[in-house]
Amino acid sequence: MARGSSRTKTRKKSPRAAGRRPKYVYAFSGGKAEGSSALRPLLGGKGSELAEMTNLGVPVPPGFTITAEAWAAYSTNDRTFPAGLWGQVQAALTRLEGAAGLKFGDPARPLLVSVRSGARASMPGMMDTVLNLGLNDRTVVGLARWTKNERFAWDCYRRFITIFGDVVLGIERRAFDEMLERAKTEAGAKTDADLQPEPLKALVSEFKRLVQTRVGKPFPQDPPEQLKLAVAAVFDSWFAKKATDYRRIHRLPDDWGTAVTVMAMVFGNLGETSGTGVCFTRDPSTGERRFFGEFLVNAQGEDVVAGIRTPQPIAALDDSMPKVYAELVAIKERLERHYRDMQDIEFTVQEGRLYILQTRSGKRTAAAAVRIAVEMVRERLIERDTALLRVEPASLNQLLVKTVDPKATYTAIARGLAATPAAAVGKVVFDPEKAVEMALREEPAILVRQETSPEDVAGMHAAQGVLTSRGGLTSHAAVVARGWGKSCVVGAGDVVVDEENRLFRAGRVVVREGQVVTLNGATGEVVMGAMPLVDPKLSPEFRELLDWARKTSTTRVRANADTPSDASKAREFFKEDRLPIVREMIMARDTETRRKAVDRLLPFQREDFIGIFTAMNGYPVTIRLLDPPLHEFLPSYKEVLEEFTRLDALGINPARHQELGLIKSRIEALHEANPMLGHRGCRLGITFPEVYEMQVRAIMEAACEVARRGIKVEPPEIMIPLTGTVAEMKLTREMAARTAERTVSEMGVKVGYSIGTMIEVPRAALIADKLAEHADFFSFGTNDLTQMNFGYSRDDIGKFLPFYLEKKLLPYDPFAVLDQEGVGELIEIGISRGRKTRSKLKVGICGEHGGEPSSVEFCHRVGMDYVSCSPYMVPIAWLASAQARIKERTAKPRKAAR
Q1: Residue 236: which residues within 8 A CB-CB, separation 6 or more?
Q2: Which of 279, 461, 476, 488 is catalytic?
């Protein structure tokens, strides 16, 4: 069935319509255009830049642009064209005929046009284009006579039916392509360009029969009707799945819509003095200042994109068409200077005459973006602020970790959530211990688990990457891996882990222990075999850009570091020598036993903090006291129960059986229906005060010891987690202060300190004015705050999040991007009320949102002093913070609403 059978409807004139109709069409031709770059929201990127180039005197084919306002009227009126639109189109078409010296639909000298999409933001390849529109059974004959090139005319006609059938009539392109391949085989033609007129005529007849069969009516022969159908199809392509997905990924508004540009066709397939190509004013992969691009002789633009023929490097154009090449070089230099950015230019050469069909800011890698931005400052093309705004903060991830070679081709066997951008290759293992063993033998491993726990950290650290079938982007695996910059894919629902048989299944694929897989942490893909990886290289330009960002930003950036290993990226926290002591502390059934275990932990904690203070060397350090539920540090209940039952049945090893019985009963006693809302955070410190007292003592002893060594130590910031009442804050502050004062007195070294809290419970934000009476600083823990505000489990959201995103019930994952409307409102309330009590209250954010660019911008806007994020996200946060400052500086005051 034909798509868009109702597309050609035109709304009847309303008797109530009065005054001038909206201007829906803007023309450009002969060095004059009605639009310019300033009208980008109205004319889209393509239309506005064609108008701009026309006004600059760049050789652009004549045409006109139908505005995004026309799209809005069309899309909100049952996909019916607004009244007055086609009158304006016809007037513009008449002007276009005059500029081209041809007539639309004329059987002797027919004007052919292209119909192209153009949103205000570049969406390459996401929407539709129709070329060679205006051809029919009569005009193709006229075109052949006029150009004296029958092969060219019929080649254009078969191209037109193919693209019109696909884009407008909804016939899959594959059906046309299969017919084309058969025709080439029968004619003995190696390429499309080798097909001669007679086979092309026969192919066109086949194409028309296909249309009749699939659509139930003949291929449209009326050019004005073709134009209406094509414009509607391009309008509708805004709603295509690939375009919708692209906007979701890049967070572009759905209501922007697209403009449509109608432009006189120029032909690169007229012979050896014609051609088409795409070029960049600089290398889009490296940023090097060199002319980069490709072209094809005797071809149309779709041939370059589709890879039907192998194009030549742009430099070869200098050999075949030196005058054209010289003109193209001059134009590309002029366009880059005018736009002050690297340009992506599409061009066609028709019988030795050059036409520019499009220019836009070129897509580029992160490495290229950084180099181009910095070098353009050196070249005095742009200012530093502009350079900082030119680089997408999130893209810096590509520069900091190994990634899959972008040239590699592969098929993924499973997909999950991309926890980090890093890639990894290794043999599949299912035990953390085996990953450690392999690391000692220098064998790379990929640790595969249903989910991870603190007990797995040794194996996680030893493995090249981690794959879990459960969990979200703030799960244990994701957070730990992100802190290390380690490859990690979580929540891969297609992966079924069978630890007993040492394998996992992904659809029909079975992957056994020891087989090699690749994790693409940037995309969340799992690939069989070893893919080539690319090492990160931090260029001088990267360091220079980051230095500019730090000098520009007023919101400071801190790194989340559990230990000196994160501070210096060298070692881990819960090592094997202390985990048994932690478990002994948890297993204790009375205060005396627990205190003994705590006393044994004190030296380890003190050494950790000494390492952190030494590594930070005078930089501020905030230390959160113990927060996770205690059961997370115990062995798996399933594994304990299995071993206990086996020993019980066999009647062997009574000592181990008794030990397991105690562990089993303790795990059962600690079991909570909802541990994230249970016995954790300050509730632990209140019920087991010896734990927090030990940690505060370790912090202050370490600070005093490092200061005694002559190393600068900023007063430690001791943070109480999960407070929700004033009583909790008051009690824990008094305990912490008492312990800190006593320790400083005993050490005989004068070191200051401050005590604050994490605002993770919505109630805490609402009573922030009262909490601030007892807190020196606030840090908003947005992972928990989001979880409690939405009522979503951050580890289980993956079960419904894809559906919510697809149905637009959520604009994004709220654990990845801060919800400014709800969670953000709580944060603003908390800051405002807290600073009413304590005007100089230091405020920051702690959580993965601290490295997400739009969230960092929000933190700057609401007046936070700092953001804190994983060490590998620090450059991203600095750049996002600098951009927020620049936008604030350059923002124009809003006019009061009338």
Answers
A1: 3, 4, 7, 79
A2: 476
